[in-house]
Amino acid sequence: MSAASFLFSCSMHVGVSHPKVAAKSSPCGLLNQPWNHLKSKTPFGHSGVLEKSKLSQKGDEILWRAGALQVESAPSFSMGQKFHLHDVIEAQQFDRETLNAIFEAARSMESIESKSSRSQMLKGYLMATLFYEPSTRTRLSFESAMKRLGGDVLTTENAREFSSAAKGETLEDTIRTVEGYSDIIVMRHFESGAAKRAATTASIPVINAGDGPGQHPSQALLDVYTIEREIGKLDGIRVGLVGDLANGRTVRSLAYLLAKYQDVKIYFVSPNVVKMKDDIKDYLTSKGVEWEESADLMEVASKCNVVYQTRVQKERFGEKIELYEEARGKYIVNQDVLNVMQKHAVVMHPLPRLDEITVDVDSDPRAAYFRQAKNGLYIRMALLKVLLLGW
Fold this sequence. Notes:
- The structure is a single chain.
- By secondary structure, the chain is of the alpha/beta class.
- It folds into two domains: about 85-215 and about 375-390, Rossmann fold (3-Layer(aba) Sandwich); about 220-315 and about 320-375, 3-Layer(aba) Sandwich (Rossmann fold), CATH 3.40.50.1370.
- It has 13 helices and 14 strands.
- The chain has helices at about 5-15, 95-115, 135-150, 160, 170-180, 195-200, 215-230, 250-260, 280-285, 295-305, 320-325, 335-340, 370-390; strands at about 40, 45-50, 55-60, 60-65, 70, 125-130, 150-155, 185-190, 205-210, 240, 265-270, 290-295, 305-310, 345-350.
- Strands 12-11-10-13-14 form a five-stranded parallel beta sheet, sandwiched between helices. Strands 7-6-8-9 form a four-stranded parallel beta sheet, sandwiched between helices. A three-stranded antiparallel beta sheet has the order 3-4-5, with no helix packed on it.
- Strand 3 and strand 4 form a beta hairpin.
- Helix 2 (about 95-115) crosses helix 13 and helix 3 (about 135-150) crosses helix 13 (about 370-390).
- The protein starts with a helix and ends with a helix.
- The model is unreliable at about 1-40 and about 40-80 (pLDDT under 50).
- It is found in: Plastid, Chloroplast.
- Homotrimer.
């Protein structure tokens, strides 16, 4: 029996195609996630919630009782099969094999998007976009991705002000309510760690679309996808992360993903008040990734395959406006920076930009940030497909 057939027979044995918790001692084990809720697909392809009885945890063992079935926590990998994706919460959850699989799925989505007729792949599915912070690219690209695959969207752009959160409702209660209306939740929140709380609560897939200064994993996925498409490789690259590195969730998530590749070096270029935090530096060191802090953008730009510029985020400074003014405008990508960059290097930016990249850079073929934004559509189409239908 093939590995794929074997896993299928295992899934049929437990009655679902993507069980959240699988047997540790059984050969049917699948990758266990750090969130102990159960997410499943019904055999008919529509999102369904496996009836949950009591979950009890003792040490590292998680016992799931559904009828007569009792299993322990799953192993850390799934017998050579692709990682079973149930949520997208943080960049650390991906390994290199899974990244390659997601990028392969994204390339297939490019051909789907280019066709005039809309795909019906996700017909009958509903995506809820729950955004507690402003967003243009992330929210619209997720909504476009869902619609291009035939699904429908329920949306609230400013949930912090115009949802029951304004009345004091807890995030957990909001998630329990919204999951009753939808098959998948895409959430942006102002608090770091909110996405993990949502995933722990929900019985349907949750995608972290940015949690305060924490992480933005789908952005990091599209960033790495863009680098591979623009540079042609991921091993051996040199990347300069520039700007607000203390508050930039995009650069934090990107650093985690770049650590999956070989012979990568990362340069941190930022004002003193927004330097990269030690947790990222320590993580890179633990993974054997070389990194260096520099105050000289011109020197770093001359060495790098990618100059990844970011906006200094005024909204993260609160009342400390003087610190924001100190940081803003210190490092700007302009024609002088382009003049020292390598011929085949690229400038990237998660957008929106203010004045940290001058508009005359836009006409240079090395300005990749609008192509980068378009790649977000393909990555998010791929994530929705994989989360709702599997690989």
